[in-house]
Amino acid sequence: MAGNTFGTLFKLTTFGESHGPAIGGIIDGCPSGVTIDMEFVQAELDRRKPGQSAIVTQRKEPDTVEFYSGIFEGVTTGTPIGFVIKNANQKSKDYAHIKDSYRPSHADYTYDQKYGVRDYRGGGRSSARETASRVVAGAIAKQVLQEVNINAYVSAVGPLKLHKPYSELDLAQTEKNIVRCPDPEVAEQMERYIKEIRKQGDTVGGIVSCVIQGAPVGLGEPVFDKLHAELGKAMLSINAVKGFEYGSGFEGASLKGSQHNDLFNTDGSTQTNLSGGIQGGISNGMDIYFNVAFKPVATIMQDQETIDNKCEKVVMQGKGRHDPCVVPRAVPIVEAMAALVLLDFYLLNKTIKS
Ligand SMILES: Cc1cc2nc3c(=O)[nH]c(=O)nc-3n(C[C@H](O)[C@H](O)[C@H](O)COP(=O)(O)O)c2cc1C
Ligand SMILES: C=C(O[C@@H]1CC(C(=O)O)=C[C@@H](OP(=O)(O)O)[C@H]1O)C(=O)O
């Protein structure tokens, strides 16, 4: 299983399964001399942790991070940063019924087919619990990138959508409600909707939007490692992600060039920003913005037909504690992955420019 490391210079390797003793990671390539605010790291984890509100999984984990190396007296040393988050609230008996059969649209079937051995408890390595380690690394990356602001928020839950662009929203409102939608009225509707869907034993998808402000001109390594290509990979590596678009995205395909071109100002900025802050795979200094679409959670509390490992049909119903909608907890994960991508390119840029 060789896909557990992300990044070129600022590299995160994660380990651990949802119902094992712990998850964690090693960050290699973090610059030395950066003062790390541990309370900020923990606060970022708290934004992602399970059990934080009535509209997320009720698994109650403190998600306390313990650092074992790479930070001395609160300052990064340039050596590998090793950290662990202990698992404290596993209920593995909820997964006994999927030991020999596969939840539709989760990773049970594909992991079994690929590896032939599967830690079925809590989805094992395929659980979104792994993303806690990404949030730790993202919180460190954010502190290296002091001048860059990365703000994600929920812009859709099922059919309920925010129709305003980020520039017309008050993003300071995002963390003031449990949905993490910056429009308080829409947030209330979304909360009610998620609760209703949960009562039905069902789940619903949604969209997380993200805006990055203050990124310098020049991030991105054409032609294969374009900034938007790496952001796309980062986002698509998050559990349950189905789509990524930046700038004008899929809507842009219906426009004419005369409507779509971002005309320059004499300082190199542009009058509009349908490019989403990236041209030719390189940041142009304008805001970078993108949307990430998440599917409805696969484990539903309703009978569904599926197959067992002998390919016989069985009827299965989800058990235990699951998210009815992932987007409220996905917001800090999206920000973390964006921070990893940006910092990596920022460091790469330093290697080619004096
Ligand atoms: C924050 C977050 C929470 C999630 N919670 C659950 C959950 O409680 N139950 C579940 O079946 N899937 C959950 N998922 C999605 C699964 O982890 C994911 O569907 C699974 O790994 C299969 O991968 P895929 O959907 O990307 O193909 C969650 C995803 C995220 C991002
Ligand atoms: C534990 C977390 O979320 C889990 C993600 C998840 C999945 O299938 O992705 C399934 C559930 O696992 P469990 O049945 O063990 O509670 C969620 O609670 C977490 O995010 O830390």
Automatic annotation (TrEMBL):
<comment type="similarity">
    <text>Belongs to the chorismate synthase family.</text>
</comment>
<keyword id="KW-0285">Flavoprotein</keyword>
<keyword id="KW-0288">FMN</keyword>
<keyword id="KW-0521">NADP</keyword>
<comment type="pathway">
    <text>Metabolic intermediate biosynthesis; chorismate biosynthesis; chorismate from D-erythrose 4-phosphate and phosphoenolpyruvate: step 7/7.</text>
</comment>
<feature type="binding site">
    <location>
        <position position="48"/>
    </location>
    <ligand>
        <name>NADP(+)</name>
    </ligand>
</feature>
<keyword id="KW-0456">Lyase</keyword>
<dbReference type="InterPro" id="IPR020541">
    <property type="entry name" value="Chorismate_synthase_CS"/>
</dbReference>
<feature type="binding site">
    <location>
        <position position="321"/>
    </location>
    <ligand>
        <name>FMN</name>
    </ligand>
</feature>
<dbReference type="GO" id="GO:0009073">
    <property type="term" value="P:aromatic amino acid family biosynthetic process"/>
</dbReference>
<dbReference type="GO" id="GO:0004107">
    <property type="term" value="F:chorismate synthase activity"/>
</dbReference>
<dbReference type="GO" id="GO:0010181">
    <property type="term" value="F:FMN binding"/>
</dbReference>
<protein>
    <recommendedName>
        <fullName>Chorismate synthase</fullName>
        <ecNumber>4.2.3.5</ecNumber>
    </recommendedName>
</protein>
<comment type="function">
    <text>This reaction introduces a second double bond into the aromatic ring system.</text>
</comment>
<dbReference type="GO" id="GO:0009423">
    <property type="term" value="P:chorismate biosynthetic process"/>
</dbReference>
<feature type="binding site">
    <location>
        <begin position="295"/>
        <end position="299"/>
    </location>
    <ligand>
        <name>FMN</name>
    </ligand>
</feature>
<keyword id="KW-0057">Aromatic amino acid biosynthesis</keyword>
<comment type="subunit">
    <text>Homotetramer.</text>
</comment>
<feature type="binding site">
    <location>
        <begin position="239"/>
        <end position="240"/>
    </location>
    <ligand>
        <name>FMN</name>
    </ligand>
</feature>
<keyword id="KW-0028">Amino-acid biosynthesis</keyword>
<dbReference type="InterPro" id="IPR035904">
    <property type="entry name" value="Chorismate_synth_AroC_sf"/>
</dbReference>
<dbReference type="GO" id="GO:0008652">
    <property type="term" value="P:amino acid biosynthetic process"/>
</dbReference>
<dbReference type="Pfam" id="PF01264">
    <property type="entry name" value="Chorismate_synt"/>
</dbReference>
<dbReference type="GO" id="GO:0005829">
    <property type="term" value="C:cytosol"/>
</dbReference>
<feature type="binding site">
    <location>
        <position position="280"/>
    </location>
    <ligand>
        <name>FMN</name>
    </ligand>
</feature>
<dbReference type="InterPro" id="IPR000453">
    <property type="entry name" value="Chorismate_synth"/>
</dbReference>
<feature type="binding site">
    <location>
        <begin position="125"/>
        <end position="127"/>
    </location>
    <ligand>
        <name>FMN</name>
    </ligand>
</feature>
<keyword id="KW-0274">FAD</keyword>
